[in-house]
Design brief:
139 residues, mainly alpha
């Protein structure tokens, strides 16, 4: 969900050409699968499409390819650090750490509460956008 919410936000801000946003799984369970149907439905309720997306697994090369790598929860962070061999350049962050409520995004896989996940993802992406804008102004 976060990939598509973030893409929607940067597009609405007229900055889609400035960012490359992509998601990847930290585990192998969903590789090749489309976005989970209830997540697709929640995105569609907000006019956002996830059409054509299939899951791929994160690789160590992603650490070199991307300026930031954002996880949804502490388990993602653990797996991302393991995949990347640590975080020597400080690229790994939790999405909710860009909000006033640091910690994990509500996981709808367990809670089935896609509304809570939507709220966390939207708030996290808004905070991340502000953080990016602030950091780009100082360069």
């Amino acid at each position: 969900m976060a990939e598509f919410v973030m893409k929607d936000m940067v597009a609405k801000a007229g900055m889609a050409d400035r960012y490359f946003i992509e998601s990847a799984a930290t585990s192998a369970e969903e590789i090749g699968n489309e976005v989970y149907p209830p997540a697709k439905q929640k995105l569609a309720e907000h006019g956002i499409s996830a059409k054509g997306k299939t899951a791929r697994q994160m690789t160590a090369d992603d650490y070199c390819r991307y300026d930031l790598i954002i996880g949804m929860d502490r388990w993602n962070m653990r797996d991302m650090k393991r995949t990347c061999g640590g975080d020597p350049y400080g690229k790994l962050h939790l999405l909710m750490d860009f909000t006033s409520r640091p910690g994990d995004v509500a996981d709808p896989w367990y809670t089935r509460d896609f509304g809570a996940t939507w709220r966390d993802v939207e708030e996290g992406c808004q905070g991340l956008m502000k953080w990016i804008e602030n950091n780009n102004q100082t360069k």
